[in-house]
Amino acid sequence: MRSRPATRSTRLVLAAAVVTALAATTACGPEDPSETGAAAPSENTSSPTPTKGTESGDNGDGKGRTESPSGGDKGDSASGDKSGYGQSCGTNDLDFTVTWEAQPISHYLVTAKAKSGITCYLDINTPSVSFGSGADGVASPVGQGGEDPIKLSGTSVAYAGINVKTTEGEGGKQFEHVIIATAEDDPNPAEVELPDSPTVDKPIVTNWSTKRDEVVPRIV
Asked: Is the peptide bond before 149 cis (omega within 30 degrees of 0)?
């Protein structure tokens, strides 16, 4: 029958195709891993061991530390910066000068000014003033002048007047410095040099004021 030779020819063609495919597979060898989506191995598969204390911020104990842009730890404040808004003036918040005034009567004028960057209030009306460490050198308040409270900031100033000798005669002691504080219990009184060395005996002091003519010390 004619159908049998045709079937044999078809089988021969299929067999030849299978042999050709097997030969091609043998020649190509194993599949390339990169063609199947697998990553090619790197030359060095071990990761480097981290070194303590490197520039990454490790402080040597294995724990990193984040630093602020200024270079210091977060939360540090700038040294010497003291806003002081609303605070009472401590003696160390102020700069003092003492000058001798001849008119209308001779006396010493204390000028108080807030240090740079500080705003504070003189809410205790009378300064604490003394000469030496003895009780007889403490100036008594006479109650003249007075504004409560006085705000000190920038160029604003407060004045107080001192009369170092309210007695007659030759009594008294000479001093080159006066001790000034904003309060009797202030732990940091200021020792201010006097323009001369006056004889001190039963001194008196006025209140703080922003007006110079209100602090001329007189015994009332």
From this structure: yes
Residue ranges covered by each domain of the chain: 87-214
Q: Give the chain's largest Cα–Cα span.
A: 165
Decide if 180 contacts 186 (C-beta within 8 A). no
Strands 107-114 and 94-101 come out as antiparallel
165 within 8 A of 172, measured Cβ to Cβ: yes
DSSP state of 212: G
Give the residue, 79 or 168, on which the prediction is more confident: 168
Phi, psi angles (nearest 5°) of residue 183:
-150, 155
Contact 161, 109 (CB under 8 A): yes
pLDDT at 183 over 90: yes
Q: Token pair of 104, please?
A: 């209308």
**pTM exceeding the 0.70 threshold for the entire prediction:** no
Closest CA to 112 of 208, 26, 179: 208
Tell me the backbone φ, ψ of residue 79, rounded to 5 degrees. Answer: -75, 145
The token pair that represents 217 in the structure block: 């010390």
* Per-state percent for the chain, helix, strand, coil, to nearest 5: 20, 25, 55
Average of per-residue pLDDT across 102-123: 95
- Average pLDDT of the residues of the chain: 74
Residue 171: predicted pLDDT: 87
